Amino acid sequence: MQRRINRFIAVLTTTAVSSVGLVALAPAATADTPRCVSRKEFRKVDRGMRKQRVHRIFDTRGEFGDGGAGGYSRLYKVCRPGFYVVVEYADGPRRVARVSSKDWNPQEG
User: Fold this and answer.
1) CA gap 83, 81 in Å, rounded
2) How do beta strands 97-106 and 71-77 pair?
């Protein structure tokens, strides 16, 4: 009986240490460029992507730009001063907003 208990404790300890080790080795879920868009991130976004995926790639939700008749745009700050990204969204299947176009524009005013 004592041998079974020792074996159980050994298995339990090994499992716990392995689990903690995996968590410790996992990369942190931090943004590489928080609250701004890099060129690399901009290139990752394609037509048809959902807005939530764009926000995860850009590390920011941006701000509402303009909207009307089935679509709208959002503005995202670029990590380089004087620029912003415009992403236009249109309602896709089941009225889920999807990227219809994107543009890297100089900031006005």
Assistant:
1) 6
2) unpaired
Tokens read off for 59: 């590390």
The structure tokens 């928080």 sit at 34
What's the token pair of residue 75?
């503005």
Tell me the backbone φ, ψ of residue 57, rounded to 5 degrees. Answer: -70, -45
* Structural contact between residues 75 and 65, judged by C-beta atoms closer than 8 angstroms: yes
pLDDT, tens digit (0-9, with 9 covering 90-100), for 9-48? 665 566 554 554 544 444 434 457 788 899 999 999 999 9
Category of 40 on φ-ψ map: left (φ > 0), alpha (ψ -120 to 50) or beta? alpha
**pTM confidence score:** 0.65
d(C-alpha 108, C-alpha 70), whole Å: 26
The structural domains of the chain, ordered by start, are 39-106 (3.30.1450.10)
Determine whether 84 is exposed, middle or buried from the number of CB atoms within 10 Å of its CB (0-12, 13-18, 19+).
buried
